[in-house]
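To: structure subgroup
Subject: Chain for Friday's discussion

All,

I'm putting the inputs and outputs inline so they're searchable in the archive.
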Amino acid sequence: MSDSTAETLVLRRGRLHDPANGVDGATGDLWIRDGRIVEPQPKADREVDLDGLVVMPGGIDLHSHVAGPKVAVGRRMQRPAADGCPDAVPTIHATGRLYAALGYTTVFDAAIATAAAPLAHLELAELPVLDKGIFLLAADDDEVVRSLAAGSADEVARLIADRVQASRAWAVKVANPGGNRFWKAGRRGDHRDLEEPLPGLSLTGREMLSRLAQAVADLKLPHRLHVHTINLGLPGNWRTTLSTMQAFDGLPAHLAHIQFHSYTGGDADETTFGSGVEPLAAWFNDHPELSLDVGQVLFGSTMAMTGDALAAEHLAAVTGVPWSAHDGFLEGGCGILPVTYREKSLVHAWQWAVGLEWFLSVNDPWRIALSTDHPNGAHFTAYPTLMRLLGDEAFRREAFERIHPAVRRNSPLAGFTREYTLNELAIITRAAPARLAGLPQKGHLGVGADADIAVYRPDADLSRMFAMPARVYKAGVLVAEDGQLRCSVPGGVLAARSG
C-alpha cells in the first residue's frame, strides 16, 4: 500500500547523506507533508523506522535518451535482450519502472529536435514516476543557425526563447555544432576544427558555440548550454575538445559525454590511440564556469543513438554494423546502431579507462554528473556497477586487469587510488545534477525540497547496495520497495521560463 501525501509522514533514524546541506551520514529524521520535506511537526500520522539505513535524495539523470524518434527507431533495431537483462532501449513504461527501482526520480532527455518536441512530450507523458524534461536541439533549426551567422545577439536570444517556450524545453543542446550541415553536404567522418565555416555560411563552429552560450546566459535559462562538441569518437579529438573549452571564454557551458571526446592519436592503434584526459582535466579544473558529464562506457551490448549523424555514420563504417539514419524533420539528423563493448577490444578498453580517468581527475565533484549517455555507453541500469568502480579501488583494479593488455600498459588509470565516498557518490548522482540543471527543490533533503528520497541498505558491495534500494519515495509516496514498483504515480514535466 502506498504512502499518502495527504498525511504527515516521518522517516526516523536514517543515516542521511545530504551533501547540499553539509550532512555526511548523520542520523536524523525527515518529516514529509504534501510532497515536500517540512519542519518537524507536533505529531506524525505515520512513522517509518529507517534505523541503520542510508538515506539520499532521489537520483537525477542529467543526460539520457529515453524518448523521441531516434529512441523509437532504437527500440525497433535492438537485438533480443539476454536473459535477466533489460532491453537496451526499454519501453517508456519500463524505463520509468527501472529508473524508479534504482532510486532515480528525475531524468532529462538530452537531444530532442524542435519539430520532434510535441511527439517526445506525448511519449514522456507515459513515463511513470519520474519528473522529466527535454534539452532542445535548437542549433539544428535553420532560422536559428542563420541568425547565429548574422551575429545579432538580440535576434538569436528571441529565436531561442521562442523555441524553448513552444517546445516546453528545459535547456538548449548543441550536438556537433554545424555537423549535420556538413553531413547533408556530403562531408563524412574526417576531422574538422572549430574554425571551419559551415557549408554555405560564414559562421564557424567556435562562433556558434560562443553565441549560443551567450544567448542561453542572457535568457537566464536554468541549465547552461549543453554541448556535444565536434569529432565525437575520433582519434586525436582531445585537441578540438580543448579548443571547445577555450571557446567559451568564461561563459558557463556543460560538456556532454566528455569521454567520447578525449582521445589521443591519429589512428585507433596501439602506438597512437590513448587518453587525452590529462591536459583537458587540467584546463577543466582551472575553469569553474565549465561542468561535464562523462558518458562512461561499460562492457556489454547496447544501442548507440545520437543527434550527430556524421559520427553515427562513421561508427557504422568502422564497425560494419547496419545503421539507421533520418534527417530530423529536415532540421538535423541522427543515427542509430547496435554496439557491443568488449574488454579485449583496444578501443573499447581505452574508452572504459578514459571515462574512469575523467571521474578520478576532476577535483570538484560538484561540477560533474554521473552518466553513461544512456544507452550509448551503457544502459542506465549499470549505474550501480559504475558507482562501485568509483568507490571501490580494489574492484576497479580487478576490472582493469581484465582489459586489453596495451591499455593496461599505457593507461594513466593504473596510478589512480582515489575512491569516491558515499557523500561524493550522492553529489555526482543527486546534488550536483540538481544544481547544474537549476533545480533548487531537488537533490537535497532540506526543508522545502521535493520529498524524492532513496533508502539503501549499507553494503561493502556498492553495486549490490545501489542496485536495489530498500524504499524509494516520489513526492512522499512510496513508489518502489526492494526493486519492485509499488505505485505508479505520474511525474511532472520540467519546462523552463526564459528571461
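Points worth raising on Friday:
The CA atoms of residues 15 and 26 lie 5 Å apart.
The first strand starts at residue 9 and ends at 18.

D.
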